[in-house]
Amino acid sequence: MTFASPPRHAVFDDIxxxxxxxxxxxxxxxxxxxGVTGWxxxxxxxxxxxxxxxxxxxxxxxxxxxxxxxxxxxxxGWYYGMKPGGEVTPDTLAAWHIPxxxxxxxxxxxxxxxxxxxxxxxxxxxMRLGQVFGREREAAKLVEGWRARVSAVGTRLANQPxxxxxxxxxxxxxxxxxxxxxxxSAIIRAAGGTxxxxxxxxxxxxxxxxxxxxxxxxxxxxxxDQSGGAADSLLAALREQPAMRLLSAVRxxxxxxxxxxxxxxxxxxxxxxxxxxxxxxxxxxxx
Length: 287
Hints:
The chain is of the alpha/beta class. It has twelve helices and twelve strands. Helix 2 links the parallel strand 2 and strand 3.
């Protein structure tokens, strides 16, 4: 994909990709956001960064909305604003001369040969945005800072055993959680943990309560929202679930609340790694 000049009417889907853009101060070149308020409670900080940028669609955008915004780039992913065979795909947008940058983590949905998720996916996508928008130097500096922070965590955890972690997103009959192709698994590894559902051959998907209980997670990440209500409901569900309620992590409340954008590719991943590492290995961070 080549660009004769940087986009001036880009559209970004989802909180995480919007924050990747905001980290490079691309707001003047953004014509709209999609897929934000229909799914999540956003923070005041996010709203301040978004400013007057309009939200074209609260969930999945339509082709008409993107064309109507005169978009000259759509930054999205599979199941982050696009669905295979859906109305909005790189192919359908190409017919309107709108190029698409696809979130690399999401490509597992159209290419099963990809390796497990790693932080290099985040770094690469941020660098790619820098190239497209003529902000290579800013992107390189940003990624360099992220790498340094992750490396500092790794140094502190050099002699620490990995601890077992389960991510609970949603679902009562069966838990919806992160598999080996989700950025969340890479975040857990960088924080000195092991995702107990890393054997799921998907990014996000459904597991069984029994399989998770047998792995006895030592810490449970609850997908939170701004109000905190989502995490409270998830914790209550765990305490009622027969296979989970007797686990020590549930009984002792060994849980960590993290927001959606902390667990999907974006700048918040670095804060999440530091926060999770401190929760898993507090002794390693004692002055």
